[in-house]
Design goal:
Layout (H helix, E strand, L loop, with lengths): L1 H24 L3 E2 L7 E2 L1 H29 L20 H18 L6 H28 L3 H8 L3 H21 L18
Antiparallel strand pairs: 1-2
Length: 194
């Protein structure tokens, strides 16, 4: 019984650490016209997915969103409150939850490798987030979907850099501190070059 409590405590601590990381990375913000800033928070979402996996990563993201919903300024630029869930970034926030699951599913489907981590961060952390964010942004701003999609390309180079950083940081953490990835049999999680 105490072993399962200890494991649950570790999992809750890992969720809290990644929720805090997402919040802290929100302080790195470049405001843009159109209401969607360039932010490092998506790097935190990517890292949550790669490290926590599909089970716990969405909980870390949901902790941040709940804190925002109750009015705490935990989103990029110190935003918070229910209004952000009706604004142009609402779809991106939902995309974070789904994206973190997709990242976790791809990265943790087998042994963690550099290519699986890179694919997971690009597919879950960019494509999925954009798939949710761009249509909602277009709807809220009353702009056609194609111009909104084209204007979103300004974010792509930065997001690709974040995916590369998340891949490198994940592999470095895996080598330095494998317990960060949770309960796994010895040797089940190992960074490989292939």
């Amino acid at each position: 019984m105490s072993s399962s409590r200890t494991e649950l405590g570790r999992d809750l601590a890992r969720i809290a650490v990644f929720a805090a990381l997402i919040v802290v990375l929100g302080t790195v913000t470049v405001p843009l016209p159109g209401g969607v800033p360039i932010t490092a928070q998506t790097l935190g979402v990517m890292l949550a997915g790669t490290v926590l996996g599909p089970r716990w990563a969405p909980l870390a993201v949901l902790v941040v969103l709940v804190l925002s919903a109750i009015g705490l300024p935990v989103l990029a630029g110190g935003r918070g409150g229910l209004g952000v869930f009706a604004g142009p970034t609402a779809g991106y926030l939902l995309g974070w939850v789904v994206g973190s699951i997709v990242i976790g599913l791809i990265v943790h489907s087998s042994r963690i490798t550099w290519w699986r981590t890179a694919v997971g961060t690009v597919v879950g952390g960019i494509l999925i987030v954009y798939a949710f964010g761009i249509p909602v942004q277009a709807l809220v701003l009353g702009i056609d979907l194609v111009p909104t999609l084209l204007s979103s390309f300004v974010f792509l180079p930065g997001d690709l850099l974040k995916a590369a950083a998340a891949t490198a940081l994940t592999l470095a953490l895996l080598r330095a501190y494998p317990p960060a990835f949770g309960r796994r049999p010895a040797g089940a999680v190992r960074a490989r070059a292939a």
